[in-house]
Specification:
The chain is an all-alpha fold and about 180 residues long. Helices cover about 70% and strands about 0% of the residues. Helix 4 (about 55-80) packs antiparallel against helix 6 (about 90-110), helix 6 packs antiparallel against helix 7 and helix 7 runs antiparallel to helix 8 (about 145-179).
Length: about 180
């Protein structure tokens, strides 16, 4: 997407600035392609596909995380009117929480160190919501210990992500030493 935006900006022809958005994948205006060459796949049948390694532990943790996110999303959809009636801005805060959750665990699956930052931000937001409202968007009316369960989840999730990021760092160091 960023390459498309840059190419549209750099194109000399007004026609090409609009045409770039409608052309097939890989098409670039000739003037831009000459001035700013970009790597592209020439043979779509024979290239190295993106495939980061994932241990069984990481795969298991990823399934746990996606299951928890699906529970959060299900709760949101089932109680969207109640959440909105508590405070109209809560729906946006909940949406931000879901976005951060998905971004953090996909970043972890990509083996990026920044996953710990995003996971920490998500979990700080979650703990702040529970501490500030004393409730997870109306959920504590049904479950007495939900706030404690959520806070424990946020803390465990942060430490698990830190552990995985540390493992990736160790694996990367061992790989660089062996090369």
């Amino acid at each position: 997407m960023w390459l498309l935006i840059k190419d549209a900006w750099r194109a000399e022809s007004i026609n090409d600035k609009f045409r770039i958005w409608l052309m097939p994948t890989g098409w670039r205006p000739a003037d831009v392609a000459n001035k700013y060459p970009a790597k592209k796949i020439e043979d779509v049948y024979h290239f190295t596909k993106y495939n980061p390694t994932a241990s069984n532990a990481l795969q298991t943790w990823s399934w746990i995380q996606i299951s928890i996110v699906l529970i959060f999303i299900s709760y949101l959809f089932a109680n969207i009117a109640t959440i909105n009636s508590l405070n109209s801005s809560y729906i946006y805060i909940y949406g931000l929480f879901i976005f951060l959750s998905v971004y953090a665990f996909t970043d972890l699956m990509d083996r990026n160190r920044s996953a710990l930052l995003w996971e920490s931000i998500k979990n700080i937001l979650g703990i702040t919501i529970v501490a500030y409202t004393g409730n997870w968007f109306g959920l504590s009316q049904w479950q007495q210990y939900i706030n404690l369960i959520l806070i424990v989840y946020f803390i465990v999730s942060t430490f698990a992500t830190a552990w995985f990021v540390n493992q990736f760092h160790k694996e990367d160091q061992q790989l660089s030493i062996s090369i």
